[in-house]
């Protein structure tokens, strides 16, 4: 071992002059400066500057390391490069882990020291590239199909819902622009002129990180000549029982219509909406400008509808898309009203009857109440489900009914609930009420204190009891802790009873109840004695406790 | 196929989430628990299928510790919930075209997820996050990384049946975490 160390030392001593020489050779080779990383989508560009050596003689190499790696790895495409930048794809790296980069200059056999970039998380440093844009022309509309920045890459794959897109559109012959902001990936810009050239550009905005991309390259497209087939307009929908009624307008012509629907979420996903539109069977081929279809045709709450006219093989362009929130057409059930009367007021509690409580948000209740004898109704509007109607007459019957006045953002109401009538309490007994209240409070406090004390006792005995010996030992020293007897479960109470005689002996009755006459022998006094006896056992651990334990009683009783 | 059951768990998630922000938090907790119980059986995987796939197991490193609800405020918890919903949406949506699930079923799940996300984004706490709180960003990054591991695993396993079963078990695990989080959020509603 010593020999090995000795030879290693010799090698080091012998090698030292060579190291020094190499350093002297590379003394003038400066390391790169101003090393910077620029990330757009999944593409990383490493840039640096270098001074001194004439261009061409010096090359540069870069390496990277993530916090999951022990060693530095050569950066693909960044080895012996002659320029002052190189590119690297982040597709196969963990963009959520910290990364480090370093670059050095090399010439012949000598190399500079490494110039390192501070560690960073690529995802947090990445810029957003412009979105992809594809255009399709109609006679009076342009369909813009957007793909999220760096589509196919991993940087924004999990953030596609976070993007908004700002579309700027203008007629080529004019400077007047129109801006549209949308979170949809396919959008139809309508009310345009036929046979006209329109240009547009789109940029992406990451809504949470507040980052904007650059605008996409300007693209122009000509709208087609005016179509002879009329396009349905003014799409409206309504609900009729368990059906939806879809209506639209269309220039009179001998045409048929078909309607389709699309789950709304497809509009927020890149590239999937065009072929996901679904036919509505009841509206697949109709001659009227309305159609009725069952609600269960549609299986998402938010959806879009569109209508097309056709005659033989000639079809019109699709109408504008109408976004529907089916909640708007959901009937609100009347609320449930509960009333607690006092001397001169009614405490009213109104609750939403809808089973999905999320639908009970932001409700306003209209409450109507009246003296049953007069029928003069008074009306209040409350946002809180619990409130008090004050200044009422004592000992008078009042009736209350309520309805849901608005439902989330929809301006609609439910039917009134059934009237609930109750009498206010007698009038001149306020002092009596006080006394009763005080007495009641005292009584309940005492009860609570007693229950609390018992609970603490239970917890102490359960959680802080001394460790139990193994069953084998337990059998030998069969001395069950008497505390279990104090905490018999209700089940055990029903199955077995302890009957304690005045003499102190114990009899156990099983499932068979004793004759009534026998029960009468035992006084309540004797039972109390038994309780005290048990308590003493617990504290002293007396051997006599054996006598109180029924045969076959489970060792551990109940949930305590 | 067994993995057709996968989105069921997401419905549970939605039930849990949809009840977080309504008026009666006490009831909500109860209700979400009840619904979880009543919906649990269909999501149970046959033991035999799980056993067959044991060799495919992988630790996806659910960031339980760092996103533990005890350490954060309501805004943080909401961000975690929002990020998980968003990532679950992306996971299913990305594989929608594989035809793994019945289309109607997966559309219902994605529609509900999308609605839930839209609702959450209208909340003041999440809007405030747009200014970019670094601690919230770190949390979001950890969840993104977790779901990236799931995506990569599926890709490496060529979306095999076993891979989907393993992912289903993992999503179930993630949902249990989400239930805890929604429960905690409901409690925050009671004692703001």
From TrEMBL, chain A:
Record key words, sorted: Receptor, Signal
Record protein name field: Interferon alpha/beta receptor 1
Positions of region (Disordered): 507-560
Residue span(s) of domain Fibronectin type-III: 31-126, 332-427
Record's keyword annotation contains Disulfide bond: no
Alphabetized SMART domains for the sequence: FN3
Pfam families: Interfer-bind, Tissue_fac
Signal sequence residues: 1-26
Record carries keyword Signal: yes
Source organism (scientific name): Mesocricetus auratus
Domain of life the protein comes from: Eukaryota
PANTHER family from the UniProt entry: INTERFERON ALPHA_BETA RECEPTOR 1 (PTHR20859:SF54), INTERFERON/INTERLEUKIN RECEPTOR (PTHR20859)
InterPro entries membership: FN3_dom, FN3_sf, Ig-like_fold, Interferon/interleukin_rcp_dom, Type-II_Cytokine-TF_Rcpt
TrEMBL record, chain B:
Entry GO terms, CC: extracellular space
Protein name as annotated: Interferon epsilon
Cellular location(s): Secreted
UniProt-listed GO biological process terms: defense response to virus
Keywords: Antiviral defense, Cytokine, Disulfide bond, Secreted, Signal
Signal peptide: 1-22
Gene name for this UniProt entry: Ifne
Coiled coil: none
């Amino acid at each position: 071992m010593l020999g090995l160390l000795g030879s290693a030392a010799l090698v080091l001593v012998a090698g030292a002059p060579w190291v020094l020489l190499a350093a002297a050779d590379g003394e003038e080779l400066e390391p790169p400066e101003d090393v910077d990383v620029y990330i757009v989508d999944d593409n990383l560009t490493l840039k640096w500057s270098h001074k001194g050596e004439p261009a061409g003689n010096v090359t540069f190499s870069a390496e990277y390391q993530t916090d999951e790696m022990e060693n530095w790895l050569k950066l693909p495409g960044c080895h012996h490069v002659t320029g002052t930048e190189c590119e690297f794809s982040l597709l196969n790296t963990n963009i959520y882990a910290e990364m480090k980069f370093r670059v050095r200059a090399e010439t012949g056999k000598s190399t500079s020291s490494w110039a390192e970039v501070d560690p960073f998380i690529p995802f947090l440093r990445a810029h957003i590239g412009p979105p992809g844009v594809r255009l399709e022309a109609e006679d009076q509309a342009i369909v813009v199909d957007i793909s999220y920045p760096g589509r196919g890459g991993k940087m924004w794959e999990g953030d596609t819902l976070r993007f908004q897109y700002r579309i700027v559109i203008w007629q080529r012959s004019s400077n007047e622009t129109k801006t549209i902001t949308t979170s949809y990936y396919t959008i139809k810009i309508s009310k345009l002129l036929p046979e006209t050239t329109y240009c547009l550009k789109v940029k992406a905005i990451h809504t949470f990180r507040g980052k904007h991309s650059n605008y996409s390259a300007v693209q122009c497209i000509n709208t087609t000549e005016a179509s002879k087939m009329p396009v349905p307009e003014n799409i409206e929908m309504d609900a009729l029982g368990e059906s939806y009624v879809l209506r639209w307008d269309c220039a009179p012509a001998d045409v048929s219509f078909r309607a389709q629907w699309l789950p709304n979420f497809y509009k927020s996903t890149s590239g999937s909406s065009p072929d996901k539109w679904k036919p509505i069977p009841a509206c697949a081929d109709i001659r009227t400008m309305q159609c009725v279809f069952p609600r269960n045709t549609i299986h998402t709450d938010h959806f879009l509808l569109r209508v097309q006219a056709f005659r033989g093989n000639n079809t019109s362009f699709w109408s504008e898309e109408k976004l529907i929130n089916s909640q708007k057409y959901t009937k609100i059930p009347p609320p449930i009203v509960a009333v607690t009367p006092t001397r001169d007021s009614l405490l009213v509690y109104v609750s939403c009857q809808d089973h999905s409580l999320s639908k009970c948000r932001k409700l306003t209740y209209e409450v109507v109440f009246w003296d049953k004898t007069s029928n003069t109704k008074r009306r209040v509007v409350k946002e809180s489900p619990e409130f008090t109607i004050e200044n009422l007459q004592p000992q008078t019957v009042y009736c209350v009914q309520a309805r849901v006045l608005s439902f989330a953002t929809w301006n609609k109401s439910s039917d009134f609930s059934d009237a609930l009538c109750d009498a206010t309490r007698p009038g001149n007994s306020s002092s009596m009420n006080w006394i009763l209240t005080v007495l009641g409070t005292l009584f309940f406090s005492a009860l609570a204190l007693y229950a609390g004390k018992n609970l603490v006792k239970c917890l102490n005995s359960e959680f802080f009891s001394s460790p139990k010996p193994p069953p084998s030992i337990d059998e030998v020293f069969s001395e069950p802790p008497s505390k279990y007897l104090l905490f018999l479960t209700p089940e055990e109470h029903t199955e077995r009873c302890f009957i304690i005689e005045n003499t102190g002996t114990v009899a156990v009755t099983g499932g068979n109840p004793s004759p009534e006459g026998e029960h009468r022998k035992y006084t309540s006094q004797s039972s109390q004695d038994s309780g005290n006896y048990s308590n003493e056992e617990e504290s002293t651990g007396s051997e006599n406790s054996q006598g109180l334990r029924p045969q076959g009683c489970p060792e551990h009783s109940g949930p305590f | 196929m067994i993995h057709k059951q996968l989105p069921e768990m997401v419905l549970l998630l939605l039930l849990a989430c949809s009840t977080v922000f309504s008026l009666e938090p006490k009831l909500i907790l109860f209700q979400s628990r009840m619904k979880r119980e009543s919906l649990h059986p269909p999501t149970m995987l046959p033991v035999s299928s799980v056993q067959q796939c044991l060799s495919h197991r992988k630790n996806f490193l659910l960031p339980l510790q760092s996103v533990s609800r005890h350490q954060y405020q309501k805004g943080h918890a909401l961000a975690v919930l929002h990020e998980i919903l968003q990532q679950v949406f992306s996971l299913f949506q990305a594989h929608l075209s594989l035809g793994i699930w019945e289309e109607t079923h997966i559309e219902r799940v994605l529609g509900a997820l999308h609605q839930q996300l839209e609702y959450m984004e209208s909340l003041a706490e999440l809007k405030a996050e747009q200014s970019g709180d670094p601690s919230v960003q770190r949390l979001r990054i950890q969840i993104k990384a977790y779901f990236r591991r799931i995506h990569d695993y599926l890709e490496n396993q060529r979306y095999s049946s076993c891979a989907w079963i393993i992912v289903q078990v993992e999503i179930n695990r993630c949902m249990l975490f989400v239930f805890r989080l929604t429960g905690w959020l409901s409690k925050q509603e009671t004692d703001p």
